[in-house]
Amino acid sequence: MSGSLGRAAAAAATALLRRGRGSGSALRAPGVRAAGSGGSGSSEHLDALVKKDKVVVFLKGTPEQPQCGFSNAVVQILRLHGVRDYAAYNVLDDPQLRQGIKDYSNWPTIPQVYLNGEFVGGCDILLQMHQNGDLVEELKKLGIRSALLDETKDQDSK
């Protein structure tokens, strides 16, 4: 990863985390599917959910109104990369889903991010991937071009 991309990504992530909550827009971002859990935390149901979309996020709240700073940070990192087409599941709406996804992943915290059906981790892991450029590469494998690549190209041409 180029030095300027790494510095720009780290600065952007730091700014996002300092800001805390986003703008609070009530409008759903294009492509974001805030889906109901169907009231089931079964392993079979969760397996279907994480494999249904290329990018799946289990969070507290919704992408438009995250209910914790960590969920907000995940949403903001995805926005920075231009990821607009993903499924988001609000674990606060369903206690079975909240516990079920923790058991399914063997990961004790929310948010949780899945790429192409594979568990990536929570906010800390996604932030680290964002900072070191791994997220750009993982998105590329999914056929998603990170918007940060275009932003860096624009900055380099100035």
From TrEMBL:
Key words, A-Z: 2Fe-2S, Iron, Iron-sulfur, Metal-binding, Redox-active center
Residue ranges crossing the lipid bilayer per the database entry: none
Pfam families per UniProt: Glutaredoxin
Gene: GLRX5
Protein name: Glutaredoxin-related protein 5, mitochondrial
Region Disordered: start-end pairs: 23-45
Entry's Gene Ontology BP terms: [2Fe-2S] cluster assembly; protein maturation
Quaternary structure (record): Homodimer. Interacts with ISCU. Interacts with BOLA1.
GO molecular function: 2 iron, 2 sulfur cluster binding; metal ion binding
Function (record text): Monothiol glutaredoxin involved in mitochondrial iron-sulfur (Fe/S) cluster transfer. Receives 2Fe/2S clusters from scaffold protein ISCU and mediates their transfer to apoproteins, to the 4Fe/FS cluster biosynthesis machinery, or export from mitochondrion. Required for normal regulation of hemoglobin synthesis by the iron-sulfur protein ACO1.
Domain Glutaredoxin: start-end pairs: 55-120
Superkingdom of the organism of origin: Eukaryota
One term under GO cellular component: iron-sulfur cluster assembly complex
